[in-house]
């Protein structure tokens, strides 16, 4: 008798707690969907710009490698040519 009386008196509080928990879960889900939508829209707008930046970085890296390799090769060839030519200093 007493357990059923306690269960009956707590039923309203349990229902309110369950309802609020469900609404809180729904709020978290809606906010996650909203954040995803905002981020995906921003990425869609800036996709071209991001691609250009990535391409620029890659091109700068290739140019740096080319300049370093070309300088090293030019110095090496200058020494080789110096030994082949008479009276020329590098």
Characterize the structure shown.
The chain has 90 residues and is mainly alpha-helical. Helix content is 92%, strand content 0%. The chain has one helix spanning 2-84. It starts with a helix and ends in a 6-residue tail after the last helix.
Fold blueprint:
Blueprint (H helix, E strand, L loop, with lengths): L1 H83 L6
Summarize the structure.
The protein has 90 residues and is mostly helical. The chain is built from one helix and no strands.
Provide the residue-averaged pLDDT.
85
Based on DSSP secondary structure assignment, what is the total number of beta strands?
0
Continuous helix count: 1
Counting helices, strands and paired strands, the structural category is: mainly alpha
Low-pLDDT windows of residues:
none
Main beta-sheet strand count, sense and barrel state: none
Radius of gyration: 36 Å
Note the gap between the termini: 108 Å
Order of helices and strands: H
Our estimate of the beta-strand percent is under 5%
Assign a percent range to the helix content: over 70%
Shape category: rod-shaped
Which terms would index this structure?
mainly alpha; about 90% helix
């Amino acid at each position: 008798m007493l357990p059923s009386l306690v269960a009956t008196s707590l039923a309203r509080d349990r229902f309110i707690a369950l309802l609020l928990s469900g609404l809180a879960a729904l709020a978290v889900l809606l906010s996650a969907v909203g954040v995803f939508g905002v981020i995906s829209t921003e990425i869609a707008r800036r996709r071209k710009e991001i691609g250009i930046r990535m391409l620029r970085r890659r091109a700068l890296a290739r140019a740096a490698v080319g300049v370093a390799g070309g300088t090293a090769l030019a110095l090496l060839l200058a020494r080789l040519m110096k030994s082949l030519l008479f009276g020329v200093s590098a």
